[in-house]
Amino acid sequence: MCLTLVLGSALFAARPAHAALICNASGANNVISAGSISVPANPTIGATIATLAPTQFQMPCRFDTSAPVETSATLWATFDSSLPPVSGFADVYQTNVQGLGIRYTFNAPACNANNVPMTSGEVKLTCPVSGPVDGPYMPIDVTVTPSFVATGVIPLGARTLSTVPLVSIVYWTSDDPATGWDKPPLYTGAASGRIIHACAINQPDASVTLPTVNSSAFSGGVGSVAGPQSFSLVFSCGSGAQVSIVLTDNTDPSNRSNVLTPTPDSTAKGIGIQILNDSGAPVSFGPDSSEPFTTNQWVIGRSPDGRLEVPLIARYIRTGNVVAGAIRALATFTMSYQ
């Protein structure tokens, strides 16, 4: 009897494995809190009205223990607006306030994103991740800066900001690129704030011509004044705000005195120009800022529902040895509403 013994072996090929990249969302579900925002008089379309403090967001990632072969992968994070861009813009989205949009600007150094605006409704971050399997979560920091932009005519008066576009978040990873993972929204779409556009300028430029005076009018020495000329700034306003104003020396914006700097084409020497307020006091100049308590800003009063006139006076003042000639000076004004 012959027995044939058959010996064999079975080989099982192991399927290549990949460590699973797991990423969470920290700092989501934000509500835009704008506080009180003053809209400059007659803002141009596209002008930035205000910029808020950046929102801090984190994408903590780690590799789990399901397959310890690879310890590097890529996270793709997309942030999408619930609204399309405003007509005429690629990166500004409408709020509930007429004429006021919002822009979201992203920074994520680990994803090579530097001041990237949300364009055509989306931002996509590509973030390489590497680290040990079953190690701690590795944070990817993202900051998002919301800013408000004039998209059209902002009505006069005070408006309540209550909604902005919701910004959703979806993750994909390179070890499972076919599956998207919804995360809580970065911004819920809720907002709070008060948008105050108290006044619009009736005349964009106020040109004031002072009378010709003889140099003998300044014989009293430095500080002598002559040639006063009244003029007014005229606005159309909506009621509901306290209005303040600051004048800025356009030739020397750092000037904080009460004498305007002559423009370089002036030929008169030893003469400056002052502007007096409605109480007859010389106005000191400040920075071009609508922030409350700006240096040398002064209060005009409550905004009326209609015409607001700010009476002023311009005059010459002697500042040194007088040389006859022509003098020209430029000032700008900035309104603030509270």
What does this protein structure show overall?
This is Fimbrial protein. It is found in: Fimbrium. This protein has strands at 21-23, 30-38, 48-51, 55-58, 61-63, 72-81, 93-94, 100-108, 113-117, 122-130, 141-150, 157-160, 167-173, 176-197, 199-201, 225-237, 242-249, 269-276, 298-302, 306-323, 331-337. Strands 2, 6, 10, 12, 13 and 14 form a 6-stranded mixed sheet that branches. Strands 3, 4, 7, 8, 9 and 11 form a 6-stranded antiparallel sheet that branches. It has a 4-stranded antiparallel sheet with strand order 15-16-20-18, with no helix packed on it. A hairpin with a 4-residue loop joins strand 8 and strand 9 (113-117). It has 2 domains: 21-197, Sandwich (Immunoglobulin-like); 199-337, Immunoglobulin-like (Sandwich), CATH 2.60.40. With 338 residues, the protein is mainly β.
Care to give the gist of this entry?
This protein has about 350 residues and is mainly β.
Low-confidence stretches: 1-18
Topology as a string of helices (H) and strands (E): EEEEEEEEEEEEEEEEEEEEE
Q: How many strands?
A: 21
How many structurally independent domains? 2
How far is the N terminus from the C terminus?
A: 111 Å
Q: Which CATH architecture of the largest domain?
A: Sandwich
Query: Can you give the mean pLDDT?
Result: 88
Task: Note the main sheet.
Answer: 6 strands, mixed
Q: What's the helical proportion of residues?
A: under 10%
Family: Belongs to the fimbrial protein family.
Domain Fimbrial-type adhesion: 197-338
Pfam family, one: Fimbrial
GO cellular component, one term: pilus
